[in-house]
Write a sequence for this structure.
């Protein structure tokens, strides 16, 4: 570091301005008659882009500032983490929460019922991904593949036997996705973490390709789930309410299971593996077997919301396995806090609700959604690697100062 | 029989090697960064895509300045794209990776994924959601110059196959593997020439110069290299710049080869090039080249003998098989327990 | 205490009254389709067309004495998002929906509208399945894939006199759909489909497939897919020395295609709706569109415009916003639109397929 930090920073900013200039400030004018192209100045392009990005950056800085002040002067005890601890430790509180949330279903508009159900689906996905990324320290990039596996498993079963009861979708989704995870994890868990990331990404792409090619899975159009297998209305409870109540119950159940698992022998072994694999192996922990278990459990949990989605939306298609979907789930886990159960829940809530509501209020900026997701991933890694409610231990680990 | 196999090989070789050469150029960037930093630069595919756009913008600027001659504009555009992408590569490293150098490997990888999304969406929002056409007048002289070799009379060969092999197989072979003629375009020749030239330069730089020795030293042991007085930061920046420039040159050729460029072109290309790097043994430079060529060939073989529908799956099937059977790749060192 | 309570009661009553009045004043129409992402540009076109139609109606005083309110939602071209959007529109209390764009979105969304009992009229989803499931209130303003695959196949066999065709599609509901219909009709006409294959919709290098096409002895190629791949595919075919005809569906009818293939493109045949850009009836529409959105109307704009217009006319005729009554009204007569007369059959499809063959002449699309 011979140059001063300020000079370097200025150089970076200058470079950024110069390199992005052609895209922002000019416009290509292709001439299709001659086949040549020319360039003209087009500041309107840049103004439009900056008019969204700059305010968003300001909002981001403000939120970060509030977060900083909160960390400095707010309650020293992590509110959310303690709350979730209490929630999952006391069965009575859990049942009460479930009942209250379910009760809300009768007062919520249909829009928020469907939105809420989708939020629950994503909460389960984030919780599941957290098992590998957070607890065990394995990075899975193609997580949406297991979501799709669960969804397709249920859709195919429901097609084969129409008498299949809807509630049985969830165990089916879990089992099929978990076994898929087992098979995918088997060959590559011996490898370094980043290999696993790419293999799962490759698996997701291959799976999507498979779903698109096979006639049994309906190709690109996907499959419609027979009406009998979908979530039905029950007496006074409408279909939307039934879905919401079921979603809340299943989400809390999944959260409970993961909470118990995390605080069990297995969970402690996972943490040991994450912190130091060699040391863990020395202590007699069967590293590969436990990693495989984490991976299968995580995959299985993705199958639950998958099957739930199939029963709720009434159809499945290959777009459930896209990279974009995987990134969305990853961003939820990272924003909330790697390794933190309440963090996953919070991350899913924020990252699903905010873009959807923004899209309705300011349709013009909905195209910028993914840009902001990407920026969040980078910024979180650089400035707050432990996420919104992660523990300092994760922070040290991610920064490599353990 | 021999003529038949020869024709088949040629056709697949020409198309497959052209694809493979491009994968190899991109794979070099993955492998170099991995070799020196031990991280997967997930945003490398986006750097390739930026190179595509950089070339078209350079051609646009030259066009506005009144320069039209292909012989001048094309080399200039390639150089401009390489500089442009190298700039993005350096900035990328500076902003998103440098701070995370010693961190747990999740951190730089996540940051790289984020960067990849940012770059892709930046181009989508600032240029276009649709496609941009590579100026036809620049690509056409090369792409439209084609030579057709051979116009074999294949009926006797088909009859031979049908008489020698069991019925089902013979019909399949006769329907799939018989080629009447082989096409080769000037553009494909250019792709081979540029790929070979750039790779030659890279090997020379790494194996024969002082700079190359320093790069290899940093890859082997960063701390030790820095103790010996090498400017580690600068050398890492150089690695990113070199890899990005190679990817950009691949980008220019791909956009000429395909005729169009899109903001999401880098994702699939990057994934396949990464597969190529893993297949050859990540961190190993000749391995990346071999891996790229093999993937290109395998893909074309798939669309030729089975169906184009399964072309995409080939690369991923290879990736999973390689990691299962030989995780270190064809030429790589052992990685299984290097944590 | 008493006066306070009275004030409260009055306030409540006034509030309730205002609330009621506000509800009665507007008729909500959902406009759904892809507006962002790669298909965003082309998907926004029908929505803008519908918007223009609704504005015109509002300027005339609305329908049934109510102002019309357009509720626009983006399904991102994704099926799961389409379901969420559909549920949201139902919740918002829309009485009818003009949308969605992609067949893959219309299919799941129509299930939601069907259950909620809402009229849906799609301006662009051409997959046959959309109206094949016996939903009474699902309509489409455009032709069906089997109609356009059919028109193309007949044209190839009868007019171009080719007997061997290679069919390549982009593996989507749309592309594979029209490809299969083409194959069926063409084979029924005793033609031979020498190759039937698909490519991922992001693939841009067609050379291996082209080798296979040439080897198969095809005299022409039918492309089931969009313009973004169609253009490079055409160029690469020509570069490889393939001189036969290149046929495609409405997915490649876009000015972007001409930018890619250039003005000299020959033997390129596209099925699309009738020529309205040069018709006298469409002139005011084209001018109004340019004025409102500051861009030229594209092919799909007019579908959206006609769909919304037809729907509102039917509501006017039914004198009701009830889905069954509107559906009945829609089927009861022939509607005048910019694209000509439209009449719906029992399934909700147009009785008369309005596909004609287009080609590129002097750097622009022209009816052959």
């Amino acid at each position: 570091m011979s140059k001063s930090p300020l000079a370097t920073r200025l150089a970076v900013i200058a470079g950024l301005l110069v390199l992005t200039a052609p895209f922002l400030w000019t416009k290509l004018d292709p001439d299709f008659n001659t086949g040549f192209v020319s360039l003209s100045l087009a500041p309107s392009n840049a103004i439009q882009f900056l008019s969204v990005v700059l305010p968003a950056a300001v909002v981001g800085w403000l939120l970060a500032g509030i977060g900083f002040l909160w960390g400095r002067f707010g309650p020293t005890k992590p509110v959310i983490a303690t709350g979730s601890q209490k929630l999952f430790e006391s069965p009575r509180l859990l049942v009460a929460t479930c009942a209250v949330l379910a009760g809300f279903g009768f007062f919520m508009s249909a829009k928020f019922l469907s939105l809420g159900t989708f939020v629950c689906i994503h909460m389960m996905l984030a919780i599941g991904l957290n098992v590998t990324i957070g607890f065990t320290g394995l990075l899975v990039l193609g997580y949406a593949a297991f979501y799709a596996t669960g969804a397709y498993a249920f859709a195919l079963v429901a097609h084969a036997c129409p008498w299949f009861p809807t509630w049985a979708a969830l165990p089916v989704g879990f089992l099929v996705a978990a076994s898929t995870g087992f098979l995918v994890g088997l060959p590559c868990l011996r490898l370094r973490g980043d290999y696993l990331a790419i293999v799962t990404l490759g698996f997701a792409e291959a799976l999507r390709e498979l779903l698109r090619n096979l006639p049994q899975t309906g190709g690109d159009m996907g499959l419609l789930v027979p009406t009998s297998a979908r979530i039905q209305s029950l007496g006074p409870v409408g279909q939307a309410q039934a879905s919401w109540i079921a979603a809340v119950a299943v989400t809390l159940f999944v959260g409970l299971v993961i909470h118990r698992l995390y605080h069990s022998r297995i969970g402690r072994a996972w943490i040991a593996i994450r912190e130091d694999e060699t040391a863990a192996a020395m202590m007699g922990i069967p590293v590969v077997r436990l990693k495989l278990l984490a991976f299968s459990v995580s995959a299985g949990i993705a199958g639950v919301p998958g099957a739930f989605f199939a029963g709720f939306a009434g159809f499945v298609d290959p777009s459930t396995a896209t990279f974009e979907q995987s990134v969305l789930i990853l961003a939820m886990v990272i924003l909330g806090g790697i390794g933190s159960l309440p963090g996953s829940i919070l991350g899913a809530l924020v990252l699903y609700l905010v873009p959807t509501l923004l899209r309705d209020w300011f349709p013009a900026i909905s195209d910028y959604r993914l840009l902001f997701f990407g920026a969040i991933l980078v910024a979180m890694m650089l400035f707050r690697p432990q996420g919104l409610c992660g523990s300092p231990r994760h922070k040290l680990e991610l920064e490599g100062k353990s | 029989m021999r003529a038949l196999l020869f024709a088949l090989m040629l056709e697949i070789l020409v198309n497959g090697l052209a694809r493979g050469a491009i994968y190899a150029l991109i794979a070099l960037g993955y492998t170099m960064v991995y070799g020196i930093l031990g991280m997967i630069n997930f945003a490398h595919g986006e750097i390739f895509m930026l190179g595509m756009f950089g070339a078209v913008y350079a051609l646009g600027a030259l066009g506005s300045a009144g320069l039209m001659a292909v012989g001048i504009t094309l080399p200039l555009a390639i150089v401009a794209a390489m500089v442009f992408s190298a700039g993005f590569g350096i900035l990328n490293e500076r902003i998103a990776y440098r701070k995370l150098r010693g961190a747990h490997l999740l951190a730089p990888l996540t940051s790289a994924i984020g960067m990849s999304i940012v770059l892709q969406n930046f181009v989508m929002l600032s240029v276009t959601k649709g496609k941009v056409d590579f100026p036809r007048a620049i690509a056409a002289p090369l792409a439209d110059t084609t030579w057709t070799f051979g116009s074999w009379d294949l009926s006797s060969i088909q009859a031979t196959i049908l008489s020698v092999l069991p019925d089902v197989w013979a019909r399949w072979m006769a329907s799939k593997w018989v080629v009447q003629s082989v096409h080769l375009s000037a553009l494909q020749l250019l792709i081979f020439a540029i790929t070979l030239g750039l790779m030659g330069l890279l090997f020379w730089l790494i194996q024969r110069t002082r700079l190359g020795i320093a790069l290899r030293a940093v890859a082997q042991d960063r701390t030790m290299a820095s103790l010996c007085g090498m400017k580690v930061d600068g050398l890492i920046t150089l690695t990113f710049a070199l890899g990005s420039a190679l990817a950009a040159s691949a980008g220019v050729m791909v956009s000429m080869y395909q005729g169009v460029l899109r903001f999401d072109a880098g994702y699939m290309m990057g994934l396949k090039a990464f597969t190529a790097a893993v297949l050859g043994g990540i961190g190993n430079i000749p391995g990346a080249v071999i891996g790229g060529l093999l993937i290109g060939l395998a893909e074309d073989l798939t669309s030729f003998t089975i169906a184009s529908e399964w072309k995409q799956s080939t690369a991923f099937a290879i990736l999973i098989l390689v990691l299962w059977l030989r995780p270190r790749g064809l030429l790589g060192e052992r990685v299984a327990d290097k944590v | 205490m008493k006066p306070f309570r009275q004030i409260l009661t009055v306030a409540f009553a006034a509030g309730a009254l205002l609330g009621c009045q506000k509800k009665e004043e507007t008729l909500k129409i959902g406009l759904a389709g892809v507006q962002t992402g790669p298909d965003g540009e082309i998907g926004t076109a029908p929505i803008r067309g519908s918007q223009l139609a609704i504005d015109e109606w509002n300027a005339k005083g609305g329908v049934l004495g109510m102002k019309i309110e357009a509720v626009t939602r983006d399904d991102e071209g994704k099926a799961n998002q389409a379901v969420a959007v559909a549920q949201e529109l139902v919740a918002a209390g829309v009485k009818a929906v003009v949308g969605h764009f992609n067949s893959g979105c219309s299919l799941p969304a129509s299930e939601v509208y069907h259950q909620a009992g809402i009229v849906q009229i799609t301006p662009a989803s051409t997959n046959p399945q959309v109206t094949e499931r016996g939903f009474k209130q699902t309509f489409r303003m455009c032709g069906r894939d089997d109609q356009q695959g059919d028109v193309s196949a007949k044209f190839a066999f009868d007019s171009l006199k080719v007997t061997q065709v290679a069919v390549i599609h982009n593996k989507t509901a749309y592309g594979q759909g029209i490809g299969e219909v083409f194959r069926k009709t063409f084979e029924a006409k005793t033609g031979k489909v020498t190759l039937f294959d698909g490519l991922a919709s992001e693939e841009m290098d067609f050379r291996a497939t082209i080798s296979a096409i040439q080897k198969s002895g095809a005299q022409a190629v039918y492309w089931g897919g969009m313009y973004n791949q169609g253009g490079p595919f055409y160029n690469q075919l020509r570069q490889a020395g393939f001189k036969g005809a290149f046929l495609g569906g409405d997915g490649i009818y876009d000015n972007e295609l001409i930018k890619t293939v250039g003005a000299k493109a020959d033997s390129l045949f596209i099925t699309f709706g009738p020529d309205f850009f040069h018709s006298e009836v469409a002139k005011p529409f084209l001018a109004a569109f340019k004025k409102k959105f500051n861009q030229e109307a594209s092919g799909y704009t007019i579908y959206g415009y006609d769909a919304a217009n037809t729907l509102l006319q039917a509501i006017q005729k039914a004198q009701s916003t009830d889905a069954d009554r509107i559906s009945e009204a829609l089927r009861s007569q022939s509607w005048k639109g910019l694209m000509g007369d439209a009449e719906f059959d029992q399934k909700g499809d147009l009785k008369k397929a309005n596909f004609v063959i287009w080609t590129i002449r002097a750097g622009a699309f022209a009816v052959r």
Summary: The longest strand of chain B covers residues 146-149. Strands of chain B lie at 131-133, 146-149, 182-185, 260-262.
